[in-house]
Amino acid sequence: MLVTRVSMLTGRETTLDVPCTPEQIDLWRSGVLLQDAMPQVPPPLREFVKTGITPEEWTATFGPGSSG
Question: What is the pLDDT of residue 64?
Answer without folding.
Answer: 84
